[in-house]
Amino acid sequence: MGLHERRQREKENIRTSILDAAFSLAKTEGWASLSMRKIADAIEYSAPVVYDHFENKEAILYEISLNGFNCLHIELLKAQREHDAPDEQLKAIVDAYWKFAFKNKEYYQLMFGLGMQCSGKGMMKEEFSSFQDMLYDCTYEIIKKNGSNPDNACHMSHALFSAVHGLISIMMMRNDDIPSTMNKTTLDETVSAFVKSL
């Protein structure tokens, strides 16, 4: 391995260490307490080394949020592929989204700015909208199968996304006084009523 390749590998390793340390700190201390200095201390490098790899904390948060969206996208695709009928796909996709949110709370908070500023505003890649796109596709197919007006698919799927995201947000921000079973039951009933309404 040449000198250039060695340096490139070392650079990538430091970059990965920075992202891993930032995510680990967020899990233990919360996103709000994250700083470039804490990240530097965690990887046992000086702050300028962190700045050599990322312009600022926002750039680190953006990179981590993209990783979250990629992980979510993989889970949604898995759920979709388990079913052929669009109504069953829709239910599976929503369920996978719900499970991802609570299994990966730190990712979800960062991805959607829950209790903090949303990272990467205006910069997100296509993975950002994969859930909404999949909801739309399923909604469109169900409407078409039912002989209803497909022009309503966009509005209807956006309404479902808002309901799902709203329930998750409420659950995450007020988990002390709202039973998780109540919210999951509400979610399931909302999805069933949504499919019937199409």
TrEMBL record:
Record keywords: Transcription included? yes
- Give me the positions annotated for DNA binding: 35-54
Domain HTH tetR-type intervals: 12-72
Q: What protein name applies here? A: TetR family transcriptional regulator
- What PANTHER family does the record point to? ACREF/ENVCD OPERON REPRESSOR-RELATED, ACREF_ENVCD OPERON REPRESSOR-RELATED
* A Pfam family hit: TetR_C_33
Q: Which domain of life is it from?
A: Bacteria
Sorted alphabetically, the keyword list is: DNA-binding, Transcription, Transcription regulation
What would you give as a GO molecular function for this chain, any one?
A: DNA binding
Q: Which InterPro entries match?
A: Homeodomain-like_sf, HTH-type_Tx_Regulator, HTH_TetR, MT1864/Rv1816-like_C, Tet_transcr_reg_TetR-rel_C_sf
